[in-house]
Design a protein that fits this description.
By secondary structure, this protein is mainly α. It is built from seven helices and no strands. Helix 5 runs parallel beside helix 7. The protein is globular and about 60 Å long. About 35% of the residues are buried. It comes from Paenibacillus anaericanus.
Amino acid sequence: MIESIALQMAMRIKAAAPEHPTSINVLKYSLSLILNAVFIIAATLTISLFTGRTKEIAIILVSYAILRQVSGGIHLKSGMQCVLCTTGAFTVMSLIHFSPISLQGANAISLILVLIFSPSNIEKQSRIKKEHYPKLKVISFLLVAANLVIASPVIAISFLAQSLTLIHRKGGE
């Protein structure tokens, strides 16, 4: 669904500016990414109005996205799968309550995972050169480590969920 909407939008853009060098496929890809994010944000915030967890959802949306940008992670096969899984996961995460011990446990697991696996699966998703990957690992670690001081259960669950998406099997995804 997202891909077909993006294709329709790309064809309209290309028809309006046929001389522009950007291909329909490149436009479609870019629009798919934008639509994916918009649908996730809109759906998750809409659901949060019914659960009463809008503040938590906002924190999850921001913290997850920031860590994902520098650490990478798995990608689902379609944009709609991503929207449905992410919206569902974020909604469930906003409802979870952590004890202080669980909070620190989630932080510790996230720290270990980002040290071992980040950055993960970003080669085709980013234009960042491989020589900068160690910096991405350090940034990922520092982001997660910051929650040792902040001590936010919402950020801890968000970082834990994102850190779990970094895990990959040896020899390929």
